[in-house]
Amino acid sequence: MIFIDRSKAKKPEILEKDSNIEHEKAHKHYVTDGKEKAFDHKLFKKPEVKEALIKLFNGKCAYCESKINKTAPIDKEHFRPKTSIKNKETGNSIRGYYWLAADWDNLLSACAHCNRTGTHETDLGEKFVSGKLDYFPLFDESKRASYGNDLKEEEKVRLLINPCIDKPETMIRYNEDGEIFPIEGINIRKEKMVKTSVETFGLHRGDLHKDRREKWKGVQIQIVRIKKAYHNYIKYSDIDFLDTLKEEFELLKIYKSIDNEHLGVVRFVMRQELLELRKILIAIKQK
Prior knowledge:
9 helices; elongated; mainly alpha; two-stranded antiparallel ribbon; about 10% strand; single chain
């Protein structure tokens, strides 16, 4: 999971223009008319909203960073559930954040595996159920926001990572096997956020472990190639080795491409080698 700067994508005009109208209709449906049946929110389903989300998240799931294939369903995910909020411990549900159903800041792009409830397997073949769906856990339930109130207090106790608000890179670390852990030394709430997000989105799915593991290996191998080319250049001072070194760096840049899968792993591995890579880059620039 990586930070996504929402300000870089233009808010769809239809949400700018009509969201308040739909909010008011939903409020009348639930509160004024007292209806229990789910309100039919339509704005977030518009093609221009889908296109904007694909662009914002570079065709990837906001949570697991997997590419969402053109033939697979792209979930226009509501970070705060629009219809109902389910308590995982009790199984009970309360009304959702219906007034945020067409709020651009509440919409993300997600894959079906992260967003919908389903049974998956770990890397060791152990089965588990995950998927965000109607879950939105808080550290303190008494802080849950209601219609007409801002989200300031609730934001302080939110337990799911929002890649457009939080900076996952400051909270998440990986190991070479593709596992996700909280970064050592972060506060208790952030540690809980990492663990809750991994469990809720199912980020410990076996296929993700494999993909992240392969990504880690690929970046490490490329860094070794860069170090070898640098060593040869320093040892022999041959312009051919300098050209090779530059080529190896260009290959590393491919891993860093913003639309690449599992960029969080790529950046994490590169941070471990940052001092060495900077030294080599300086040497290249001086020639």
